[in-house]
Amino acid sequence: MAVDKKFVLTGAKRVFDSRPMYAQVVVTDDCNLSCSYCDEYAPGAPPVALSTLKARVDKLDELGVLVYDFLGGETMLHPDIAELVRHAKSKRGGSNLATIITNAFLLTRRSILDLNAAGLDFMQVSVDTLRPTAWSDKALKSVLPKLRLLAETAKFQVEIQSVLNEENLDSYDEFRRELKDLPFAFGFSIMHGKGGRIAIRGERYLDLLEKYGVFEGVNFYGDHLKEMLRGDFSRPWKCLGGFKFLYVTSAGAVQWCAQQRGAAFDLMSATPARLKSNDRHKPCEAGCALGCVRMVSHTLGEPLKTFGASVRLAAGMSAPKKSASPAPRALNAP
Predict the structure, then answer these.
(1) Which helix (H) or strand (E) holds 173?
(2) Where are the alpha helices (DSSP H) in 18-167?
(3) CA 53 to CA 56: how far, in whole Å?
(4) Which of these, 208, 209, 229, 240, is most buried using a 10 Å CB contact count?
């Protein structure tokens, strides 16, 4: 797998230099579903041309990116997604990470085999509820055959990610029981509203998160999360969006994240100095519940506090696929 000595050493350099570590790259705004909470898709939008996406990966690699999240819309609507993964993995001798975020509805045995051959490291599958609801189409009962196909066929790591809110809070234990025999990791995305601000509150969420953890990459901001679930947004932190973490839209613009769309500039004109200008506190930090930005910001901004969790996350990504689900992880694991 891609987390080798070279990856670790280069990643350590990102703590001190002015280069980005992590990029989310939108490959299409189209989606086959229409979940009511999502505002990151445009039905019928065309996929970004493969040549354009390859050029963006080339630029991101030149800037220093080591981790690529390919997403949508729905990523698997892109006909050349495996070739894009292959191109990303051709960089740095494969000493990087390539991830796909998908709802899994469109997965086939052939597409999984193609992703295996392309060198995909990690797939995050979004599954929110046991059964379809007006809130989310991403239901376990609809996608379970695809998950079993992944368990049989995928050589890459798979994590089941759920957006946590009132719709699935009471049924989550049953959800986990349904999947207990599949060799996957599990995690939560915390429901957010406009601008990325946390949209859920209450002790019931705290109880669930204490039981299962969030996911290894953000467990180390567990104390922040507990406070936000109680309505306290006072703890300071520094967002590295637009600097160490880049969100690249289908049009090729770099944003701080998926939810902050005002501060954008063209990726192909980006320089380390231009990215460095975003190394500052941002007005949206208080109440931010975006785990991807949090993960990068805390990992690189507070390396001594997050070292243990970072090592466990890297080890989990580089380990061979297991035959049983991992044990629950504490919310604020050191």
Answers:
(1) helix 172-178
(2) 50-63, 81-89, 109-118, 140-153
(3) 5
(4) 240
Token duo for residue 141: 């009962």
- Find the mean pLDDT for residues 111-133: 94
Structural domains of the chain, with CATH: 5-318 (3.20.20.70)
- Rounded to a whole number of angstroms, the CA Rg of the chain reads 18
Give the per-residue pLDDT at 287.
93
List the structure tokens of 35: 């979940």
The residue to which tokens 């380990």 are assigned: 319
CB 186 within 8 A of CB 127: no
Dihedral of CA atoms 174, 177, 182, 185 in degrees, nearest 10, equals 70
pLDDT bin (cut points 50, 70, 90) of residue 8 is confident
Give the pLDDT confidence of 143-189 residue by residue, as tens digits. 999 999 999 999 999 999 998 888 889 999 999 999 999 999 888 88
Instruction: Give the sheet arrangement for strand 67-71, strand by strand.
Output: 185-190, 157-164, 122-126, 97-102, 67-71, 22-26, 245-248, 253-255, 265-266
